[in-house]
Write a structure and sequence with these properties.
One of its GO terms (molecular function) is methyltransferase activity. By secondary structure, the chain is an alpha/beta fold. It has helices spanning 15-18, 24-37, 54-61, 73-86, 122-134, 149-156, 212-221; strands spanning 43-48, 64-70, 91-94, 106-111, 136-147, 160-164, 168-177, 182-192, 198-208, 225-231, 244-250. The protein is globular and about 55 Å long.
């Protein structure tokens, strides 16, 4: 594997343009269907790894009071521009998912677009899950998606993707490392500047594939109750041929007491 470089710095400015085919509305329908089935029809919901805020905005438009957490300031700057345009009262926080802090508990925590795959060790994943458990209401729901090992190894594999637009172009090289269960995206960007010239940048993105049984065990170690794993396409029980799955878990008591803090919506 190559030496790690910063992810989602330069890419943030063109992320939405190149990711316009992501089925956010389908994901919204799936996520809200699950939430409502579990009794979460409104109220405070946290999105982890919110990125440029596209899904956060859709959730806010569906009646949820949203908080978005992401470690990339560049991505959050794009999210704040969308917030200014839509007028939704969304609270964005620049924080690491492994040690995020809120002002109190929330009804549900969601995470989409394989944000959890960016957590590369089981220890770190348990830290994320423990934080989630601490900031959920009693019996609150945790719902997140994952790309599967099958997708990384057999569908994505060692392929190269490319796209070119007037505003910019990218070359996306994928490398799967079986022993580490890591998929490495080597991203080369050509971003058009106001002068009309193109600036070349490179970023490295690593994602890890996890077995369902491993995720179940880590969730339980973090104090959560396992609920189910669904195929994101069929919304039925996940199988070995699933490419993206939804994992659902519940809050099951607190390991650490959370202080209630005043919710400052001006952040």
């Amino acid at each position: 594997m190559k030496e790690e470089r910063a992810a989602y710095e330069e890419f943030a400015s063109v992320y939405d343009m190149f990711m316009e085919e992501i089925p956010y509305k389908k994901w919204l329908a799936n996520i809200t269907q699950i939430l409502q089935k579990e009794g979460v029809h409104n109220g405070l919901v946290l999105e982890l790894g919110c990125g440029t805020g596209t899904f956060t905005e859709l959730m806010a438009g569906s009646g949820y009071d949203m908080i978005g957490v992401d470690s990339s300031m560049e991505m959050l700057e794009q999210a704040l521009e969308k917030k200014a345009e839509s007028g939704y009262d969304i609270l964005y926080l620049q924080q690491d998912m492994r040690e995020f802090e809120l002002y109190g508990t929330v009804k549900a925590v969601v995470s989409v677009c394989d944000s959890m795959n960016y957590i590369l060790t089981e220890k770190d994943l348990e830290q994320v899950f423990a934080c989630v458990n601490n900031y959920l209401d009693p019996g609150g729901l945790f719902l997140f998606d994952l790309k599967t090992i099958h997708y990384f190894r057999d569908v994505c594999g060692d392929c190269v993707l490319a796209d070119s637009r007037e505003e910019g172009s990218f070359i996306w090289e994928n490398s799967w490392f079986e022993e580490e269960q890591i998929n490495e995206y080597d991203l080369t960007l050509f971003i058009r500047e106001k002068s009309g010239l193109y600036r070349r940048e490179q970023e490295l993105h690593d994602q890890r594939g996890y077995k369902i049984d491993t995720v179940r065990q880590i969730l339980m170690q973090a104090g959560m109750e396992w609920v189910s794993a669904l195929d994101a396409d069929t919304m039925k029980e996940a199988t070995e041929s699933s490419e993206r799955i939804y994992i659902m878990a519940r809050e099951k008591g607190k390991k650490n007491k959370i202080e209630n803090r005043k919710d400052d919506r001006n952040v």
